[in-house]
Structures are given as C-alpha cells and as structure tokens.
Amino acid sequence: DQAIGCFIHAMNEKAQALGATSTRLATASGLHHRDMYSTASDVARISRAAFGYPLIEHILAKMSHELEITGAQPRRLTIKSRIEPLVVPESVTVTGGKTGTLVGTAENLMVRVVLDGRPVLAVLMQQGGSRWHLMSGLLEEALEAAEAQRVKAQPAARFGQLKRSPKAGPGAKP
C-alpha cells in the first residue's frame, strides 16, 4: 500500500533527523522484518524524542490503551503493553517502555524510569537470557552508581561551603 510506504519513509527520515543513523525501519507496525535494524543508542535517541510528546508518554505509561481508528474502516483497537512488571528497588519508578525484536537480536527492551528524581532511558539489546531479569539488574546497577555519585559529591559540596579564615593564606598557621 502506497500510504504505508510513505509512512515508513517518513519514519526513516525522522530517525535520520534525530541522529539515529544506524537505524532502518521496514514496517509500519514496528514488528521485526529482515530489512529492519537499529542500535541501542539509536533506540534511545528515538525513544527520548517520542517521550517528548505528552500523548505518547501517557500511552506508553499504561498497561493498555484504546485507539480509535477513523477513515474507510472506523474501529476501536485495544493495544496491550507487553512490559512485564520489573523487579526494581522502591526508589525506581517505571514510567513506560517498549519491547522489540530485530533479526539476529532477540527480545529487546527499552524502559523509561525515574531514577534519583530524573527520567532515565535504558535500552537492552541482547540474545539469550531473560530481558526482564537483565533489565532489572541493569537498573539496580544504575541506582547503585547514582548513589555512589551522590555520596562522592557530598564531601565536595560540604567543602565548597567552608569559609576560609581571614588569616588563612600561604604560610598562615592553622
């Protein structure tokens, strides 16, 4: 169908404009196709842009969404999320995600979480193993890294708040 071809072409142009230069989309649905490929960094670029649209952010945060299709064959379609509950620490909130499959790479996963008060995208493209288990481990490591950065930054922040004595300077005795 010509309209679908135009849509796929527009998606590829948008991906290129976003800097996703190692991505080629081949279906309107996003379902895998032998001519479709991407990288984790490209998926993150595209996802970051998509989450910039409040409606997309709202839909991806839901477990299901009812879509109203207009045109020659009007109908309602319920889209169900394939995002399974992730085992994450209480301080991590999952705010959306998308599963996917590319030829040669099984069970990909992108999730958006709020980590340490900031939205963070995590993209996993892997073969073998459970994407849910691997993503939970990745998010746990990210939380530990954020905590380590926060602890590391605290002494520097306190040091920056110390005031020097007027007598302090080269050769001054404490």
Description:
The protein has 174 residues and is an alpha+beta fold. 37% of the residues lie in helices and 23% in strands. It is built from 4 helices and 5 strands, in the order αααβββββα. The protein has helices at residues 2-17, 40-50, 54-60, 131-161, and strands spanning 64-69, 75-80, 93-102, 105-115, 118-124. The strands form 2 sheets. It has a 3-stranded antiparallel beta sheet, with helices on both faces. Strands 1-2 form a two-stranded antiparallel sheet. The chain is globular. The N and C termini lie far apart (81 Å). Mean pLDDT is 81; it is low at 156-174.
Output the helix-strand order: HHHEEEEEH
- Which residue ranges are poorly predicted, with pLDDT under 50 across at least 5 consecutive positions? 156-174
Task: Estimate the mean pLDDT confidence.
Answer: 81
Give the helix tally: 4
Q: Major sheet: size, sense and barrel closure?
A: 3 strands, antiparallel
Structural class: alpha+beta
Q: Taking strands numbered 1, 2, ... along the chain, how are they ordered across the largest sheet? A: 3-4-5
Shape: globular
Strand percentage, roughly?
A: 15-25%
Q: How many beta-strand elements?
A: 5
Q: What is the terminal-to-terminal distance?
A: 81 Å
Taking all Cα atoms into account, the compactness measure Rg is: 23 Å
Name the helicity range. Answer: 25-40%
